[in-house]
Amino acid sequence: PRLTASAHRPVGIETMGWDALRTAAAGCTACKLCEGRKQVVFGTGSTRAQWLIVGEAPGEQEDLQGEPFVGKSGQLLDSMLRAIGLSRGDADPRQQVYIANTIKCRPPGNRNPQPDELAQCEAFLIRQLALLQPRIILAMGRFAVQSLLRSDEPVGRLRGRVHHYQGVPLIVTYHPAYLLRNPEDKARAWDDLCLAVETAKRAT
Ligand code: URA
């Protein structure tokens, strides 16, 4: 679809259920990213999951397949999750993750999300969070942190302690794509995952 004067974010997101929300996202034309997307990448995992994992934006593979974290970063994310007994598939809700991105459409050439795109898309993530009511949130990378914590501080300064988003404990960690470029920080990411596991235990 072309972005025209009638481009808009669907109304009533704040009260939608899962199905309506997914449908609304699929037809969203609120920002210019709708022009280049193949698919809207809404989110994946059980809606009963106790963990919410928030990434940045779909890449090429995600745009093609319609599912978050299916490319190289996704492989690393899955192995990190496996290491702490979590899964995006069938499992006990305590071990299940729901994965969503701060923006649902692929930025061209995987460039960083722009402020207007983040602002337009935020309502979807906020509604996903309200519907899911997770016990713990893992915010991966600078854009997830900016969206949820409203902080411009670098990830390295925010990790290592428990933050809160609307009363839900939130742990900040590096984005898997960053870890692929900076493997020396994997040990820190492991510490973050352990902190998240401990925090989730205390929250249940
Ligand atoms: N990186 C992200 O932040 N999200 C994805 O879905 C894939 C890669």
Gyration radius, rounded = 16 Å
Q: Are any ligands bound, and if so which?
A: uracil
The description of the largest β-sheet is: 6 strands, mixed
Overall, the morphology is globular
Q: List the quaternary state of the chains.
A: single chain
Beta percentage is 5-15%
Number of helices: 8
The class by helix and strand makeup works out as alpha/beta
Q: Could you state the order of secondary-structure elements as H and E? A: HEEHHEHEHHEEHH
How far do the termini sit from each other? 44 Å
Give a nutshell description of this structure:
With about 200 residues, the chain is of the alpha/beta class. The protein contains 8 helices and 6 strands, in the order αββααβαβααββαα.
Describe the protein's architecture and organization:
The mean pLDDT is 94. The protein is built from 8 helices and 6 strands. By secondary structure, it is of the alpha/beta class. The longest helix is centred in the middle third of the chain and has 18 residues. The site of uracil has 13 residues, from loops.
